[in-house]
Amino acid sequence: MDIDTRALFAPMVINGHTVKNRFSVAPMTRISATEDGRATERMTRYYERFAQGGFGTVITEGIYTDQAFSQGYVHQPGMTDQTQASAWTPVVRGIKAHGTLAIAQLMHAGAISQHNRFRDSTVGPSPVQPKGEQMTFYHGKDRYVLPSAMKEDQIADAINGFAESAGRAIEVAGFDAVEIHGANGYLLDQFLTEYANARTDQWGGATENRVRLILETLKAVRARVGAKVPVGVRLSQAKVNDYHHKWAGAERDAEIIFGSLADAGADFIHVTEFEAWQPAFAKGGPSLMRLAKRYAPKAVILANGSLHDIERATAALNEGADILTIGRGALANPDLPRRLSDRNALNAFDPAILGPIADVKETELAT
Fold first, then answer.
1. Which of 8, 10, 249, 301 gives 20 to 30 Å between its CA and that of 143?
2. What are the phi and psi torsion angles at 210 (to 5°)?
3. pTM of the prediction?
4. Contact 257, 194 (CB under 8 A)
């Protein structure tokens, strides 16, 4: 089939920043920083290959935001002080050297933290045992521990951690944009999730309250970095510890969540599903990326979920997506945009890349 791929290679503007094509590397946890959270030379080489391979945007793995409860994994990179921020500078320089937009994803693990060198306990919206078990390829073992319910001052500190880390990411590390991680079961998503959030205060109950922490974080980050820096939010239904979760209010929740992000001024919204084109809720209904575009029409929509196939990628642009974020396909094909442009075959993803531990392997960097 002769597919018209011109739209995939057309530029896109996000809050005054031009992206050269519609392909982005998705954020993927690779636990390859130093023990004290500094980005490494290996990470510099890892990220630069995607930019060399033609990706218009690179979104980093989740970067922890404070020296309290945010860290989630052993050897996770941070952005909590000048030292950690400065260590990102060569990584960012390598990405931007190829005309690629560099986005820092900021993350607070909350109740599903598997390792934190600053604390020996976890926090979340409520003292609810997280589902599932820790991920062994990130050095996890056994069940998640029971979190303590966050107090008001701890919530304020978490919001401030996002904002100050965003400032360092832009001003010290040199990133172009910031993505707030509100997906996949981490802290902001825990507040959004009805079974994890049993609060009866302003942060719990109705969806409008449960989305409040995401909105307040977005507002604080915006105030810290200014109006000209692209700021977005990543959202999902599924979680790393609950793959099949769906928003309890279905499309009504989507309207509230996406609509409130639009009202709060999110420059982009990044939605992720296992297969991005599948109905978000009822059979035959709209996908999550279509709902995001419907209820936040002025935001740039990033979509993630098995979109490395050229037919799926092209179709997604007609389904509400503006930019496609590629995970497994990018790991197997760091030059995926060039391959698709030249109509060359893609390498199949080999799960061994992420095993037995999901750190960056020298074999990846040699390809």
1. 249
2. -70, -25
3. 0.98
4. no
